[in-house]
């Protein structure tokens, strides 16, 4: 697992890159926090870098495996 830092929603933020059985996945548990405890979100669970690029900006370019 790797901690990735940058910004999301205009504020400093961090998320996780996991390597499971040789496949990379991104997880951002903060952004999956449900509003008012009504639902469990999975919008940022085991997602691709392309998905995170829509809302997250990396501090530096990382040379990490491509996520699914």
**Compute the gyration radius: what is it?**
12 Å
Sketch the topology as an H/E string, one letter per element. EEEEHE
The helix-and-strand class reads mainly beta
Low-confidence stretches: none
Extended strand count: 5
Strand arrangement in the largest pleated sheet: 4-3-2-1-5
Mean pLDDT over the residues:
78
* Total count of helical runs of at least 4 residues: 1
Strand composition percent: 35-45%
Apparent shape: globular
Largest sheet: 5 strands, antiparallel
Question: How much helix, percentage-wise, in residues?
Answer: under 10%
Report how far apart the termini are.
15 Å
Verbal overview:
- There is one protein chain.
- The protein is mostly beta strands.
- The protein is built from one helix and five strands, in the order ββββαβ.
- The chain has one helix spanning 49-53; strands spanning 2-8, 11-20, 23-27, 45-47, 56-58.
- A five-stranded antiparallel beta sheet has the order 4-3-2-1-5.
- The mean pLDDT is 78.
Secondary structure layout:
Layout: E1 2-8, E2 11-20, E3 23-27, E4 45-47, H1 49-53, E5 56-58
Antiparallel strand pairs: 1-2, 1-5, 2-3, 3-4
Structure in a nutshell:
This protein has 68 residues and is mainly beta. The chain has 1 helix and 5 strands; from the N terminus they run ββββαβ.
List keywords for this structure.
68 residues; five-stranded antiparallel sheet
